[in-house]
Amino acid sequence: MAIRRESHIGLGVHRTYRVRVTHLVWDWNGTLLDDLALVVTATNASLASVGGPPITAEEHRRDFRRPIEAYYAGVLGRPLRADEFAGLDRAFHDAYDAGFASIALARDALDALASWTGTQSLLSMWFHDQLVPTVEGHGLTGYFRRVDGLRAEVGGGPKAPHLVAHLDALGLDASDVLMIGDSVDDADAAASVGAACVLYSGGFTDRKRLELVGVPVVDTLADALRLTAQVGEHR
Ligand SMILES: [Mg+2]
Q: Per-residue b/e over 38-61, b at no fewer than 16 CB within 10 Å?
């Protein structure tokens, strides 16, 4: 197993994890890209398109989940009609696209990417044909062995099957992989293949929710890599 927890979260003692990985799979939105504010704006545009109430950033961090249909249904207080999700998803992406050119990376994203000495890749649920030029625009393409976004026209599903395909394409064994993301879905995907996972609290999900998952939760991307740095100290 790639991560062994040696002390329990919540006991107030120093936590030590041994993370033995050679490859990082990064999440994009909310992890390397600091786009929570824009996502909230776009979510509100989406909700407004069906007469829903606006949400705040903290409400998003507390309530957002996948499948996204279930999240919208929770906010709206009713199930979505069969034809409704595609329209909500389109409204979200239209609003997101209108603002994303000015969105910055997470504060220590570049330092984290540059400091890792193993291999890295990017797996996002954002549209592939927009992700690739955006990653290039931020000057990050060279850090990644592979960049995969969503190749379907409508998103909202879990990341797990995409992680399977991503690792297959890379020819990687999941036991060599650490996923770094900001959502419960990232951890679910990692668990589904047996990869390690560290969750970043600076993105789309409230820290308390992340702590319930049972994998390490960090407040900076550098801290995620510090967990892996402990490999050398212990083996
Ligand atoms: Mg994310």
A: bbbbbbbbbbebeebeebeeeebb
